[in-house]
Design goal:
single chain; 735 residues; alpha/beta; 7-stranded parallel beta sheet; 6-stranded parallel beta sheet; 26 helices; globular; disordered C terminus
Length: 735
């Protein structure tokens, strides 16, 4: 039988089933290789102690500190009414701050003997507050004696690695497990081609693994991290470069607009001139559409920069060339809105009888899940006969029943809201792969675009069209200064008195059953604002209509309303019949009411940075200036308030997306989850490591062009298979 390669050996065999089970369940580590790639989060120096003053609340921490004093108290309790209860209080210090440890009951005996003043140890536990002081209750600890041979050996080196740990497995236990498997690092297969490694002066992979887990100096850590960053960046860029290479081999029908066809007729009737940005981006798209392999382009632009117009011109070019175009929107409200605005922009050009007919017009149809049977039948017929050149819809477009005459272009609005499977199904509806244009209003820093959407060419619209007004944004601290909130509602009344309209956005609808489990979970005990459930549309609308906005017409809009009701509400608001629309984030993307000039976002701290930027983009769409008020009860010093301050301070979406990313981490860049803790990047930070990512991309392109199958790079193939496992392989396939 084949020997299992050392790094693929299951941890169960090496560390025993109990430890392996905890590692698999809590840390997602299954093999020796997984554990070797579970890198220390930071390092403690023997002579230095953790800053106890900086400990995060409610988090599991490991600290290295010295015992300052230890006192045993007796007390009466329900269990021992005669005062026999025992509590051991130990104070530890790092020379800057102090931290209280408490042990109760029978658990006091061992620490009472071991934790004597002057003793140094590593302590691990969850930080909580008692009597307004930070404490660790019943922490696990490991003494740092360093006098016996064994202890010196196990804590060799002046730097103690501290690992991302869990309540079930302390950092030092992970460290000991790593020491057990560290010899296997010698057998790690190096994914980097020798020429690249030597050219960039990088250490080998076995050496990097050794140095990251057992560094003797800070230089060891730097050398190891630099090398491991290159692994992540390079393997990822090779995966994306292979995608681009494979796409370039696919056949597609070139689509060139007719010289005096639908597109030029449309351009002639535009009441304004295109911005320079719109012209440049359109030219890039038309060049791609004219080639015989599928376009894969990401069009990102500021809120209101005119992406829809650019996409519509691309769709008209394809219709001119005898094909059909489909625009996929994430929600029905948005699909209806796109349909309305496209038909308005095209006028009589949207009333065509036949595709490419003499009157140069075409038919624009809407297809959503809630349409009546007759309207739906007609829409499907128009698509299969080619009568409709443009179809706009939700994922109802993807259903098996939908057939196209000749699908030439797919435009996806707001990429992050569409499952990859859905895009793939739509792409499969062309006779040959259709061209693909992905639009997003969330500006993505260039490095993120290169890392997440590296298989898409990127176009950026960063100019606002003439006539768009600036938006003033302010944070309203409702808890510190209640009169600011009262003033916010006065401002809304003033806007309405001037003939304008306003949005009020809330995080929740308000007809949900409150989940008692969720209600019991608080993010951080010191934040009062976190203790109540988020404000809800239905409650806030009632409060406003009967209170601060009495006398104005207030309506609600949220995702659980019937599509016809939603559409009716939006129509009344667009027509100016409603003064104030109280809504959830259903209005986040694409809703276009130029007369709406004010927006109040309640519990603004509950929204992400890019979401706030998206929402704000709904006002100031006409000639009157926009106003966006971010209402929060968070205390001034909290990170949430700083985040809101950043949003209020700039209208530059690219700047905000960088701030957002720095706060949230990259997310599993290749997987479905686009943000949060599950990052497939362990040492690479997308914003900080721009240079590495750019260089890795150049190297990857060169390697793939010379050897697309990577026959000469077995180590790289192995790393690629590990990174792009089956699920991710499909994800990229469908990208």
């Amino acid at each position: 039988m084949d020997l299992v390669p050392a790094l693929e050996e299951p941890l169960k065999k090496v560390l025993g089933p109990p430890t392996a089970k905890v590692m698999a369940e809590h840390l997602g580590l299954h093999t020796v290789g997984d554990l070797l790639h579970h890198y220390p989060r930071r390092y403690e120096e023997r002579g230095q102690l953790t800053h106890l003053a900086d400990l995060p609340m409610d988090e599991h921490v490991t600290v290295v500190a010295m015992v300052a004093d230890a006192r045993l108290h007796s007390f009466a309790s329900a269990k021992s009414p005669r005062g026999k209860g025992q509590r051991l209080e130990v104070t530890i210090t790092d020379g800057h701050g102090r931290l209280q440890l408490v042990f109760f009951g029978n658990g006091v005996h061992k620490p009472h003997k071991e934790l004597l003043p002057g003793t140094r140890a590593m302590f691990a536990g969850k930080v909580s507050v008692f009597n307004r002081r930070l404490q660790l209750a019943h922490p696990a600890y490991e003494l740092l004696r360093g006098d016996t041979e064994e202890a010196v050996e196990s804590w060799a080196g002046a730097l103690i690695p501290l690992y991302p740990a869990t309540a079930k497995l302390e950092s030092w236990k992970i460290g000991k497990a790593v020491q057990t498997v560290l010899p296997s690092a010698q057998e790690a297969v190096d994914p980097l081609p020798d020429s690249l490694r030597e050219g960039r002066g990088l250490i080998s992979l076995p050496e990097a693994l050794l140095k990251i887990h057992r560094p003797h100096t800070k230089a060891d850590i730097d050398a190891a991290r630099t090398r491991l960053k290159w692994d992540e960046a390079f393997v990822l860029q090779v995966a994306l470069a292979r995608r681009r290479h494979a796409d370039a081999q696919l056949p597609a029908v070139p689509r060139r607009p007719a010289p005096d066809g639908l597109l030029s007729a449309f351009d002639d009737r535009l009441p304004f001139t295109l911005t320079d940005g719109q012209r440049t981006v359109s030219a890039e798209i038309f060049d791609d559409l004219a080639t015989d392999h599928p376009m894969h382009r990401l069009l990102q632009g500021e809120v209101g920069s005119g992406k829809t117009l650019v996409a519509l011109r691309a769709m008209l070019a394809v219709v001119d060339a005898g094909g059909q175009a489909a625009l996929l929107a994430p929600t029905e409200v948005l699909a209806q809105q796109h349909h309305r605005s496209v038909v308005e922009m095209m006028g009589e050009l949207a009333e065509g009888g036949m595709l490419g007919g003499a009157d140069r017009a075409t038919k624009v149809v809407l297809l959503t899940g809630s349409m009546g049977a007759a309207a739906r039948r007609q829409a499907l017929l128009d698509l299969v006969t080619g009568e409709a050149g443009i179809v706009i819809g939700t994922h109802a477009l993807i259903e098996d029943k939908v057939r196209f005459h000749d699908l030439g272009l797919v435009v996806v609005d707001e990429q992050h809201r569409f499952g990859v499977e859905q895009r793939d199904a739509l792409r499969g509806k062309g006779k040959q792969p259709p061209h693909l244009l992905v639009m997003t209003a969330t500006p993505i820093p260039r490095t993120v675009a290169m890392t997440v959407f590296g298989d898409l060419e990127t176009s950026v619209l960063d100019q606002l069209p003439a006539g768009r007004s600036p938006i003033a944004s302010h944070v309203v601290p409702a808890a510190d200064k209640p009169h600011f909130l009262a003033r916010a509602w006065e401002r809304v009344r003033e806007e309405v008195a001037n003939g304008h309209q306003a949005y009020v956005v809330c995080p929740r609808i308000g007809d949900e059953e409150d989940d008692p489990k969720k209600a019991g979970r608080k993010k951080s005990p010191e934040d009062e604002a976190e203790k109540r459930p988020p404000l809800a549309v239905l409650d806030v609308a009632d409060h406003l209509a009967g209170g601060p906005l009495r006398g104005l017409t207030v309506e609600v809009l949220h995702g659980r309303m019937h599509p016809d009701d939603k559409d009716a509400v939006m129509r009344r608001f667009a027509a100016g019949d409603t003064d104030v629309l109280v809504a959830t984030t259903v209005i986040e993307v694409g809703v276009n009411v130029p007369n709406a000039t004010a927006m109040v976002i309640m519990d603004a701290d509950r929204f992400g940075v890019s979401q706030l930027h998206q929402l704000r983009g709904r006002v100031g769409r006409g000639s009157a200036p926009g106003l966006c008020l971010l209402v929060t009860e968070m205390p001034e010093a909290s990170p949430a308030r700083q985040r809101l301050g950043a949003v209020a301070a700039t209208l530059d979406g690219f700047e905000l997306s960088r701030i957002d990313l720095e706060q949230r981490r990259e997310g599993d860049v290749l997987g479905q989850a686009q943000s949060g803790a599950r990052s497939s990047l362990r040492v690479l930070a997308v914003i900080e490591d721009e240079e590495v990512i750019e260089q890795a991309r150049e190297e990857a392109v060169a390697v793939v062009e010379a050897d697309p199958e990577l026959t000469a790079h077995p180590g790289l193939r192995t790393a690629l298979d590990a990174l792009v496992d089956e699920e991710r392989e499909q994800y990229l396939e469908k990208g």
